[in-house]
Amino acid sequence: MSEPDTGPEFYAGRPRPWRPNDLVNGGGSGVGRAAYGVPSGGVAVWPNASETVPPETLGGLVREFSKAAAEIAVEFGKGCRDIVRQSLGNRDSVLGRSLGKVRESYLGKRVTQLRRKLGIVNEYLPEDKDPIHAWSVIACVTILAFAVVYVNVETTPSGPAPEVKKIYIHPPSAARVMLPDGRFIAYKEQGVPADRARFSIIAPHSFLSSRLAGIPGLKASLLEEFGVRLLTYDLPGFGESDPHPNRNLESSAMDMLLLADAVGVNDKFWVVGYSSGGLHAWAALRYIPDRLAGAAMFAPMVNPYDSFMNREERRRTWEKWTRSRKFMYFLARRFPSFLSYFYHRSFLSGKHGQIDRWLSLSLGKRDKALMEDPIYEEFWQRDVEESIRQGNAKPFVEEAVLQVSNWGFSLADLKLQKKERGKGVVNWLKAMLTSQEELIGFLGPIHIWQGMDDKVVPPSMTDFVHRILPGAAVHKLPYEGHFTYIYFCDECHRQIFTALFGTPQGPLNFTTEVDQSPLEGTEEQEEEESPLEGTEEQEEEEARGDSVLAPSEA
Hints:
CATH architecture of the domain at 175-418 and 439-501: 3-Layer(aba) Sandwich
Low-confidence stretches: 24-51, 512-537, 543-554
Largest sheet: 8 strands, mixed
CATH class of the domain at 175-418 and 439-501: Alpha Beta
């Protein structure tokens, strides 16, 4: 059979089969390409064609493959949907029978009637939108909008807006020490000097506070009277202290220990924990108990998600808090990165505000009255300015997360109890040779002061602590709130120091008075020695006289 005529004249005016030489960058001579309408430039031009065919690139191939894969995925999803509808949506299926029973019930009939009445609303939806999908999106957006409005309503003042004051960042003024890891920690010292201190106290500050807080309003005369040296410091990232790269409660206790060694606290010291600063006091009791003489807690914060807390204690605690605060605790536990947004809208906004609105706190009457005091307002504003000096939200997020996360220990670890004996011959021999049983836990005293009208750290938290640590001395304060007992109360401060240190004895006194009695005794001895010396001289003269008289007598 003869080969058909395949020249250019044969395919004039009709389509021609594809050949390898038709590739734009394919092989073949330039003469053959030009003969079939492929110029040497690289773009194929078919005879009698008005459009050019662009060459295919790698990006185009990838896009086409992606489109094909997407179409396959969509078809696969539709197939799965059809399978689910046929298997579960059928009336004979388990789900269909269950839904049929629900539809036949009274509630199901009411829901069906309501759907019919509301069906007219579907007319306002776009024609190309599925009503089920559209209404689900509308419901989600509505719930989210109500949640945002719900939070903002509680944080928005109901009365007239107060005068807005801008935050002023003061020049650095803190004394700082360098820790072994190269970080600097800022501290403040009050009271008697180190060499005269009868008692030493170290106080970590609470959330949104600084080293300037300490025990607010504590007078220097009271520290002098009891011989107390008070040290306060900025937590990592607060005030003038450098941040910690891997901060936790154990590192917080180590920072406290290193600070004590750096500033010359050689003996045991007391730790004071107020509100959320109690977290760091609990950590010190757990990780450095040998360096502590005792602990003084004021409305100490514990983990509201603690597994040892029973249902009643948890209910009494959470019911005292506002919905906004509960929401913030939820974010700190589940989505801590979102806290930065709220912090930048409140205390990191560069403007002063009120602590109850910033931190979503519910306060009692006495606490609200204290906040209106100009002395407290001035103290609070200066403390906040120092706390947010670095303008970074990270240390505040870390502090919030520490409150609600796993501490690495429980309060039960601090309970004073007998150490369980291990099994084995070696442990049995140790038990036989040692007469005293080894104790574990914190051996020193723990004092807790709790206001019964406190809504920031409810009394139920202290009840929980006392149940876990029955050896702690709890001082319940009727009608006192979260701030009123420790802030600017001279009589309260005296009661606290008396409970901790007993009768005031003043600072240590190492000066010695010159004793004159040895000098008087020396003079008397000299006077007594002089007559003796005269008697001896007389005896010698008499002896010489006797020797002279002796020959004449002979």
